[in-house]
């Protein structure tokens, strides 16, 4: 028992590990809460598009010397506007439009980095480096997390209606376009918050896997968020400790841990067990 306690406490003697855990916990809470909306709306690929679509904004913000948050959010919203406009055109499929937008915005970001000769750590952007976060990063992530959670609490009921019945929400007079734009901005900010910890490529696992795991056990949206946040925190903390002791890449380890917890939640779910038992009974007949 003493060995286990020592193994938990020993990494906490380092500043980088304490700061990494702080950011990891915050991102582990925020990503699944926002990801729940995407899972329920079956729009998880939208987060993937936005995560790649922020690259041109990061390049321009770096070149102009402005806060990367503004650039990332602007580019993320722009990519969603392009998707929304193309979806309204006849004979265009949603999945094709999203893939085309993802590729084009990411390519535009690469071109801008080269043309403007900005210094942007692409490897860090893609895969993150949670062990390099500073106290300032912790404060920024805390501010983003608290701000987004506050907005979700304030606008919970309109977003709930919008999430489950968009047409009904529009008929009821809710500002559907504004809610959609606001949700896009929240997704963009969430991606920026998790960008340094797990990177934009792997942040999808942290946004989607805990939210899916929670959706297997809960039906009400707020409980999905709470359950997803619990899984997200467990994934980030466990992944960080595994990466510390086994010397694995931290972002990838967190993503794999999130996926493993999703599989565990699916395997232990009573409906999954009942389905397997039913299938076994039929095979024996």
Automatic annotation (TrEMBL):
It is found in: Cell membrane; Membrane. The chain crosses the membrane at residues 20-40, 60-86, 98-120, 140-159, 171-192, 198-218, 225-244, 250-268. One of its GO terms (biological process) is response to zinc ion. Signal peptide: none annotated. Pfam families: ABC-3. It comes from the Bacteria. Keywords: Membrane, Transmembrane, Transmembrane helix, Transport. GO terms for cellular component: ATP-binding cassette (ABC) transporter complex. It is a multi-pass membrane protein. The keyword Cytoplasm does not apply. CDD domains: TM_ABC_iron-siderophores_like (cd06550). The keyword Membrane applies. Belongs to the ABC-3 integral membrane protein family. This is Membrane protein.
